[in-house]
Amino acid sequence: MTDRAADLLIRAGAVHTLVPGQPPQRALAVRGDRIAAVSPDPSGLDDRVGARTTVHDLPGATVLPAFDDTHTHLILAGYGAHDVPVQEARTIPEFLDLIRQRATTTPEGEWIRTTTNWQELNLAERRLPTAAELDRATDRHPVLVKRGGHNDVVNTYALRLAGITEDTPVPPGGVIGRDGDGHLNGRLVDNAMPLVERLLPDPDRARRIEGLRLASGQYAATGIGTVRDCAVTPDDYAVLLAAREAGALSTRVRALISALGLTSKAQVEDLLDAMEDWRDGSDPWLRVWGVKFGLDGGLEAGATEEPYACDHAFSGTLTWDPDALVEAVEAVVRRGWRVGTHAYGDRAVRILLDVYERVLQRNPGLPAGTMVMEHGGLAGPEQRARAVALGVPVTIQQPLLHDTAEVEEGFWGPERVARLFPARGWLDLGAQVSAGSDFPVGQFGAMRSVWGMTTRQTVIGVKGPEHAITYDEALTLHTTQAVRLLGEESLRGTLTPGRLADLTIWDLDPALCHGDALRDLNPTHTFVGGLLVTPDGMR
């Protein structure tokens, strides 16, 4: 190859660089893992073609930067590659039969886990299974049924292993479920989940790496080149490191090390000690972004100012004492790490901003964007203005709203659900906003998210159309604004010479697609670092 020869040359109908003011280009060259040049002339980079150059001549195609999913759970997606696929069930008997089938091939006494990306309203019975029902699937294995990141249902075998009885104290910020007669029903919520999950054995390392290979390839197939995984345990991160070493990651990963379930500064300090070896941020594929806290519950336990529509005596659950959270967050930022905190209901949003404001007052000079609000679901005008004034970025997840709107209306009522994830209000205030999916609660996908933010469509129709944003705005929340959150503006986000060659090719211009055509649109090619990624993760 000559000094100017490219490894990859793309000629396209339009290369949208996302550089402000730059018109669409027609050709893009990649050398190594970087963009080498762009040109407005489709033949303008032909002098860079050498014997080893791969040329894609696609005169009708559109090229965009690869997307970031700024709040998702690749670790759970990796588990799901091998777990019982209960998202396929449409009734509880079908759900139980899938577990029963897995039990026939699982040695007695070994754990059986399910996938997490399902909703009970997709079942004919429109409810979660119970411990007694799981017992009918198998009473010879402990069973862990997960739905999203905030709810577990376990069978009697698992309750017995964990020592959970009707006299077990409920952990602060958690729920141990009971039926109408006061007996245990197997459900564990938020801070009660570790009572059982701490017993799970470490899965086979090779199996987990294979799961991450499959899952990251599936993200890339939808146009996502970087994921910000918002609940990574130290053990999970060790597996990510091994997957990176094995070449099994098809997306870049920015990990938030999980402090979920912790309730004191001392526990957080122990976690920070374990993170000391991960400060090196030189690997562009895998880095630790910071620490993840949770302040309130999810769909069923988000902390609200007003009582729930379904239970006027309930206003959600806080998982941290605010004073203790100030101390814990301060411990993190004083060690030089960033913080992302889950706050879903409007009461949690208000309290989190109180916490962050106190930390900022006690630690003047913290770098911008050190403390991030994850979700900010019911952030009203006053709290949005506070977040902007404090310089607190927010991540929003329209796919979460799309997939769970019916569930949430049962808890909060239609008016509050329509106010979730007010993208228009955030942007009009000049807030630093980026977007993601919150998989497994919402379905990941580059254009699925864009479609949702531009239409406000949900499984039960349009909710809060006044909060919709434009296609161009939605695009930036997954690209230029996403890399700003990650502090990687000089590396990614625009198709500019010298930036990492993370890009997607679409046979249709997404800007011209509408309705289901945009929702279901996937790229024909995704390149990460100049390498072509296929759905099975192979490059």
Overview of the structural elements:
- The chain is an alpha/beta fold.
- The chain has 3 domains: 1-65 and 492-539, Roll (Urease, subunit C, domain 1), CATH 2.30.40; 79-197, Diaminopimelate Epimerase, Chain A, domain 1 (Roll), CATH 3.10.310; 204-491, Metal-dependent hydrolases (TIM Barrel, Alpha-Beta Barrel).
- It is 32% helix and 22% strand.
- The protein has 18 helices and 22 strands.
- Helix 6 (205-221) crosses helix 7 (234-245), helix 8 packs parallel to helix 9 (322-334) and helix 10 packs parallel to helix 11 (381-390).
- The longest helix has 17 residues, at 205-221.
- It is globular.
- The two termini are 22 Å apart.
- The relative contact order is 0.14.
User: What is the class of the largest domain in the CATH system?
Assistant: Alpha Beta
Count of β-strands: 22
Main beta sheet, described?
A: 8 strands, parallel
Mean pLDDT: 95
Topology-level CATH name of the largest domain = TIM Barrel
Secondary-structure content class: alpha/beta
Task: Tell me the domain tally.
Answer: 3
CATH homologous superfamily title of the largest domain? Metal-dependent hydrolases
Span between termini: 22 Å
Strand order of the largest sheet: 5-11-12-13-14-15-16-17
Helical amount among residues, as a percent range? 25-40%
Strand content: 15-25%
Spatial shape? globular
The CATH architecture of the largest domain can be named as Alpha-Beta Barrel
How many distinct helices?
18
* Rg, alpha carbons: 23 Å
Given as residue ranges, the uncertain stretches (5+ residues, pLDDT < 50) are none
